[in-house]
Structures are given as structure tokens and as C-alpha cells.
Design goal:
The structure holds two protein chains of two kinds.
Chain A (H helix, E strand, L loop, with lengths): L1 H11 L5 H7 L13 H26 L4 H5 L3 H18 L5 H14 L13 H11 L1 H10 L2 H11 L2 H18 L9 H11 L7 H8 L5 H16 L19 H13 L8 H8 L6 H16 L9 H11 L1 E2 L6 H55 L6 H26 L6 H18 L18 H13 L11
Helix pairs in contact in A: 3-8, 3-18, 7-8, 7-10, 7-12, 7-13, 8-13, 10-11, 11-12, 14-15, 15-16, 18-19, 18-20, 19-20, 19-21, 20-21
Chain B lengths: L1 H12 L11 H13 L5 H51 L9 H46 L3 H10 L7 H17 L14 E3 L4 H15 L20 H4 L1 E3 L10
Parallel strand pairs in B: 1-2
Chain lengths: 488, 259
């Protein structure tokens, strides 16, 4: 039985901080009977999922919709029961979250449940499980969203009209399946299962509280759910700005192109004053755009047109015109244009720096992720190696020998690739990126005081010797004995 | 605590309507301290605090997303408005410079220039908002991992990177577009460039002040850290814009207690 297996795994993995993993929610438990250290499996799942996300993302939505109604009746009681208790407990024992948030959570739960359509009978506390998808299964989410095409959304929406409740339903569905038919769930579902198991089993004190709190995450919901797909879609397909939205009040991410379509529709209907949300919606003919979106956007639009100077709706805007004129207290008189020019220059500079900073941050994370994956691969290979060596069969060891041979070249090749990258040989994009950022970081660390204008400069030849040192330290960090937290 | 102080400064210097939209760094830090201070035997408290931590993190992210997307929408609308307004002004008074003696034209142009510049500034401030919140999240997650030996950071950050509030491409594009518009709309005056005051004091509470504050704060945040690692940002380089360092901030407006 799955639930009973979990405590064992956590006890085994006690040397590692399992809590982080479970908090994060993407605790995927390897199907193999001997549960490996949980953090490893977490990472395994990560890399596995990222490799096979096509499959998993497609599989999940397909299997669910038909079964939602069938198994829903079995679980509401359980879910209701278990989700009530942490709720109460939290309101009493956790002073850190303000009471107002809690109240809001409760209000929101009640607010949303009636509007969930057919999904209502399934869930009594929609917010908690919904939020599972937000913070418990972030990987699941961001795997889901880019993969969602209209075909799939159509399928999902036809059932409940609310992707949030679909996710909930999905999870409950799988949990149901797992309880009834024990082992053979598809691998990527385990994270969901565990998350739900955590939510619903009050006895699992070890697991539960940490994953429960995230589930009681009130205002996330449709906003939390919707942000990701909307933004991904916005960037990838202008024509279809929303991939999945509920029928209800979710937040829409507007783009300039979408706004153009909006303005055109409004103009065709006689201008901002005469156009109605319904008419605009119809004319725009954008999939998944709701009348609420159009309504609020129209309101903003009208406000902007009536008072062009204070269209932001914030009071500081009004103070700007006079403030900025007088905001420069200089000895000589500057023309207004000059003042504006100066302002522009500062602003441009800030923006420039922000962009650079952001790129750096992205690369830092990329590097970190890369290192982590390498580390995990290494560990995995060692695990396999140790398993194979303990088995008495000859066959397994032969292919394992091969993989071992692959693994050591891998590890040493990474170090050598880091070295090679400095000479400009670009073995792979990912490797050269960490190389660059580490090079520049090394430079900065050596010379923090002298701001010599060396920004992130991948082609800087002076940094030749430093990446070598860095590569060595990274290579040694991959030695099997190093603790997990060492490199990161 | 250094970042916390800087963040606080930033919040105080920011546009009033934005003050409560920033990261609740202090609160998160308190939770992390609580988590790490309660030893494993009192498991229950530890676990609760951790759960609260994650809860709060997610709540913060939602806050950022909501605010960011709303502002972004406003900017998209406003940009169109400004474009149309500019077009109207140009059409009314002829191409810029064709009828320079018309005072009305000049006034209108000055007005719209100022509005465009402020608009630009506000967008940049939004990007700054996004960035400083991200930085705060990264820092607090790093702290969490450090104190608890957990693995939350790497994975959580991957999630954060995909959030709307961090994916600022659209706003950046609008900003660049704004810059090119301004380049067209501003008269070219060679004499004025190069004349700089040794110290320029920035007073008042406008967008300009806020951008200056943001820039200075960014510089300070990145000037050095006791816990530098491969995840740390290098120091900010502004040497090629000396004049920015000559900018001083006057006493800030009365701070509103936030957290």
C-alpha cells in the first residue's frame, strides 16, 4: 500500500532533508521497491520528467476526464475530513500567517466552490487542492502548460470548464486509482499521488503538515493557475494568447497585439463609449477570452482616454508633472528639455543594468541546474553500480560496465569541457554558459573594488587562468564523497 | 540583513501605490530563523514553520504576479494612448520643428515629452520591482537551504523563473520602443550635452526620483556580500556614467510602515 510505504522512505532518507522535498511537493517516489534517498529521487524525477515531459503531459489529461465522475463519489468525505483539520490547526497554531489571510482563504474557498460547476461535488475545499497544483506540482504545472494545445484544453474544459478543478479532479482520481489498484500507476503520477496522499491522510504527520499548508493557499487559485499558461502562451502564440482559462474570473495577461485587436474591435463598434464588452468580445473572437477580461480591460481603456495624464489611476501620477519639473535643484538653470534628458539617461541606465542583472541571474540558475543534474547523474550511476555489484548475475554487470565507462568519461569530460571552453571551443551551449558566468564571477570576486567596466564578457581572454581554477573546484565537487549541499 | 535594509530603502523610495507590493523579506526571514532554531525534537513546530514559509512564498509570488500583470496591462493601454496623442499633436502642429514658433505646439510637445519620459520611467521601475523581488526570493531561498540543509532553492527558483512577474520581455520591449520614440521626439541640442553639475540633488517624489533611488540601491545591493557564491551577482558597474554617482538623494518622504 502506498501510504504505508512513505514513512519508511522518509525514515531511510533521514540523513537528507526530506522536508524540503516534500514541502516543495514534487516528491516523486521511485517505483522501485527500495526507496532511494529521497532527494535523489526528487532530482531523478526532475530530469526524467524534463526528458519525457511530452509523454507525461499528454498522458495525464487524457486519462482523467472520463473517470472523474466515476470515482468522485468515493472520496469527498476523506478529503473533506482531512482538509478541515489542518485548516483548523493552522488557524490556531501559526501566528505567522495573519488571520486576515486565513479569513480570506476561508472566504475564498466558499466563494469558489459554488462556481466550480460539475466539479463541485468532488471537492469541498477547492482551494487547497487547487493549490496543490501551484506549489506542490510546479514541475507538473510548467510541464503541462507549454504542452497544452487547444485540443487538450477543449477536452479538459468540456468536462468542468475549469482547469483548476480539472487538476484537482485529476489528482483525486489518481489517488483513488492508487488506493484501489496498488502499484501500477504511470511513473510521473507519483508526485501527484504523494501530494494527495499527504493531503488526505491525517495520520501521516511527518508528511502532511508541510504539504498541507501550501494547499490552503487561497488566492492563488485561479490566478496562480492561470498565470503560467497565459504567459507561456502569450510569448509563443500571439494569435492564441490563452491556452487554458477557466470560465471564471482569472487573470489574463494582455499583450500589445491583443490590445491592438481590442482597440480595433472597439473602434469598429463606435468607440470606447459605445462599444459593449459583449460586442467587443465577439468581434475579437479570441479563444478563451472571457467577457470579464474584456470588461475590465474596457474600463481601464476608458479611464485612460478620458484622462490621459493620470491614466495609471495612481495619485503620484498627478504629482509628476510639477514634481519632476522642480525635482532638479541645481545652481544653474536647466531647460526643461535638459532635465528630461537627464531623467531619460538615468532611466535608460537603470533599465540596462536591470537587463544585465536579469541575464546574469538566469545564467546563474542555469549553471546551478546543470551542476545539479550532473551531480544527480553521477549519483545515479553510482547507485546502479553498487546495485549491480551486489547482484550475483553476470549479465547485468556487463551492460553496467559499459555504463560505468560512460559515466567516468562523462564526469571527467565535464571538467575538461569546462577547461576547453575557456579556449573558445564551444562544446555545448549549456557548458559554455556556466563557463562564462563563472569566469565573470571570478573576475568580479577578485576585483570587487575596481569597477573596471567588465560586465559579462564571454570573450575576455584575460580570464583564461581563472576558469581553470573554477573547473577544478567544480570537478572535485563531483567526487562521490561530497555532501549534497556542498556544490550548491 | 543588509539586503533587508536595502529592500526597505527601496520600498520607501518607491512610488506610493507600490509600497505594499514588494517582498515581505523580513517575515520570510523570521520564518527561516524559526525553522532553523527549533531543533528536530520539536518537530511539529519546525514543520509548521516550514509549511508557513512555503505558504508565504507562494502568496508573495501571487502578489507579484497580480500586481505586475495589472501594471503591464496599464502600460500597454497607456502606450497606445501616448502614441495616438503624439500623432495628434504632430498632425495638429505639423512635423516637429516645422512650426516651432507656435507656443501651443511647444507646450503640447513639452507636455507629451514629459509624459513619455515619465511613462518610460515607470516601466523601468516595474522591471526594477520585478528584479528586486526576484533577488529577494533567491536570497531567502538560499538562506533557507543553508539553515535547513534543504533543497528548496534550486527547484523553487526554476518555478519562479517562469512566473509572469519575472518574464518581463514585453515591458522591456515597450521600454525600448519608448526610447526610440523619445529619440525622435526630442530636439537635438548639441550644446546641452556635456554640461553637468557636480552635484545634482533629486527632490520631490516623482518617477525620476524613484529611478535614481532604484539605481543607487541596486548598486549598493551588489557592492559586496559576505556570502558570495556562484549564485551571487557581480558588483554593479556604473563607472561610465559618473554623473549618476553624483546624484544625491534628499531626505525621503515620510516613510509609511509596511511590514
Amino acid at each position: 500500500m502506498i501510504l504505508s510505504m512513505f514513512p519508511n522512505s522518509f525514515i531511510q532518507g533521514s540523513g537528507i532533508r526530506y522536508k524540503a522535498a516534500e514541502l516543495f511537493g514534487r516528491v516523486s517516489v521511485a517505483i522501485s521497491s527500495s526507496f532511494p534517498v529521497l532527494s535523489t529521487s526528487l532530482e531523478e524525477n526532475y530530469s526524467k520528467l524534463s526528458n519525457s515531459f511530452q509523454v507525461s503531459a499528454e498522458r495525464e489529461p487524457m486519462s482523467n476526464p472520463q473517470q472523474i465522475s466515476a470515482s468522485s463519489s468515493r472520496f469527498p468525505d476523506n478529503i473533506h475530513f482531512s482538509s478541515v483539520s489542518p485548516h483548523e490547526r493552522y488557524s490556531q497554531n501559526s501566528p505567522f500567517i495573519s488571520q486576515s489571510l486565513r479569513d480570506e482563504a476561508r472566504l475564498r474557498s466558499t466563494h469558489f466552490s459554488p462556481s466550480e460547476g460539475q466539479a463541485t461535488p468532488l471537492i469541498n475545499h477547492p482551494e487547497e487542492n487547487k493549490d496543490n497544483s501551484w506549489c506542490i506540482d510546479p514541475l507538473q504545472d510548467f510541464l503541462d502548460f507549454p504542452e497544452n494545445d487547444p485540443g487538450q484544453t477543449g477536452l479538459l474544459e468540456s468536462n468542468t470548464g475549469d482547469i483548476a478543478s480539472d487538476d484537482r479532479a485529476k489528482r483525486i482520481e489518481w489517488w483513488a486509482d492508487q488506493l484501489i489498484s496498488v502499484e501500477d500507476g504511470p511513473e510521473p503520477n507519483w508526485s501527484e499521488v504523494l501530494a494527495d496522499a499527504n493531503v488526505t491522510d491525517a495520520r501521516q504527520k511527518v508528511l502532511k503538515p508541510s504539504t498541507d499548508i501550501p494547499t490552503q493557499h487561497p488566492q492563488v487559485h485561479p490566478q496562480g493557475q492561470q498565470h503560467q499558461p497565459v504567459s507561456n502562451e502569450e510569448f509563443h502564440a500571439v494569435a492564441n494568447p490563452l491556452s487554458m482559462t477557466p470560465a471564471n474570473k482569472s487573470r489574463m495577461r494582455w499583450t500589445p497585439e491583443l490590445h491592438e485587436a481590442f482597440v480595433e474591435a472597439v473602434n469598429r463598434l463606435g468607440g470606447g463609449e459605445r462599444a459593449t464588452p459583449k460586442g467587443v468580445l465577439k468581434l475579437m473572437n479570441v479563444e478563451n477570452l472571457t467577457i470579464y477580461h474584456v470588461k475590465s480591460h474596457l474600463q481601464k481603456y476608458r479611464t485612460a482616454r478620458h484622462r490621459p495624464e493620470s491614466s495609471e489611476g495612481t495619485s503620484e501620477k498627478k504629482s509628476n508633472p510639477t514634481e519632476d519639473m522642480k525635482s532638479l535643484d541645481t545652481k544653474t538653470t536647466m531647460s526643461i528639455t535638459e532635465a528630461l534628458r537627464l531623467q531619460m539617461e538615468v532611466q535608460k541606465r537603470l533599465h540596462e543594468q536591470l537587463e544585465i542583472q536579469r541575464n546574469l541571474q538566469l545564467r546563474i540558475e542555469e549553471q546551478g541546474r546543470y551542476l545539479q543534474m550532473m551531480f544527480e547523474q553521477r549519483k545515479q550511476m553510482e547507485n546502479e553500480k553498487s546495485k549491480a555489484s551486489s547482484s550475483s548475475l553476470e549479465n547485468p554487470s556487463a551492460p553496467l560496465f559499459e555504463s560505468k565507462q560512460h559515466s567516468s568519461p562523462n564526469e571527467t569530460s565535464m571538467a575538461t569541457e569546462l577547461d576547453v571552453a575557456k579556449t573558445g571551443a564551444d562544446t555545448s551551449h549549456v557548458i559554455s554558459a556556466p563557463e562564462d558566468s563563472s569566469a565573470s564571477l571570478n573576475q568580479k570576486q577578485k576585483a570587487p573594488e575596481t569597477k573596471t567596466g567588465e560586465e559579462v564578457d564571454p570573450d575576455d581572454d584575460e580570464s583564461g587562468h581563472k576558469p581553470m581554477k573554477r573547473a577544478r573546484s567544480e570537478a572535485t565537487a563531483f567526487s562521490p564523497k561530497s555532501a549534497l549541499g556542498n556544490t550548491l | 540583513m543588509k539586503f533587508g535594509k536595502r529592500l526597505q530603502q527601496q520600498i520607501e523610495e518607491t512610488l506610493p501605490g507600490w509600497r505594499d507590493k514588494f517582498l515581505s523579506y523580513k517575515r520570510l526571514k523570521k520564518l527561516v530563523n524559526l525553522i532553523s532554531s527549533s531543533p528536530p525534537p520539536s518537530h511539529r513546530h519546525c514543520v509548521e514553520a516550514e509549511a508557513d514559509f512555503v505558504y508565504l512564498l507562494n502568496h508573495e509570488i501571487d502578489k507579484f504576479n497580480a500586481f505586475f500583470m495589472e501594471k503591464e496591462e496599464d502600460f500597454i493601454i497607456k502606450r497606445k494612448e501616448l502614441q495616438q496623442r503624439l500623432q495628434r499633436v504632430i498632425d495638429t502642429w505639423g512635423p516637429n520643428g516645422a512650426r516651432p514658433s507656435e507656443t501651443n505646439c511647444k507646450e503640447d510637445m513639452a507636455e507629451i515629452r514629459k509624459d513619455i519620459v515619465n511613462f518610460h520611467g515607470e516601466m523601468v521601475l516595474l522591471v526594477n520591482y520585478s528584479n528586486i523581488n526576484y533577488t529577494g526570493l533567491a536570497k531567502i531561498l538560499k538562506k533557507y537551504d543553508k539553515r535547513t540543509g534543504g533543497l528548496l532553492r534550486l527547484l523553487f527558483i526554476q518555478k519562479v523563473l517562469k512566473q509572469p512577474f519575472f518574464t518581463t520581455e514585453v515591458v522591456s520591449k515597450l521600454i525600448k520602443e519608448c526610447e526610440s520614440t523619445i529619440a525622435q521626439v526630442f530636439p537635438v541640442d548639441e550644446k546641452e550635452i556635456g554640461r553637468r553639475e557636480p552635484t545634482i540633488r533629486v527632490t520631490g517624489e516623482g518617477v525620476f526620483r524613484n529611478t535614481v533611488a532604484a539605481l543607487l540601491t541596486m548598486q549598493e545591493i551588489r557592492s559586496g556580500s559576505s556570502t558570495r557564491s556562484q549564485f551571487s551577482l557581480p558588483p554593479l558597474d556604473l563607472t561610465d556614467s559618473e554623473f549618476i554617482r553624483t546624484l544625491q538623494m534628499n531626505s525621503p518622504p515620510i516613510p509609511i510602515p509596511i511590514l
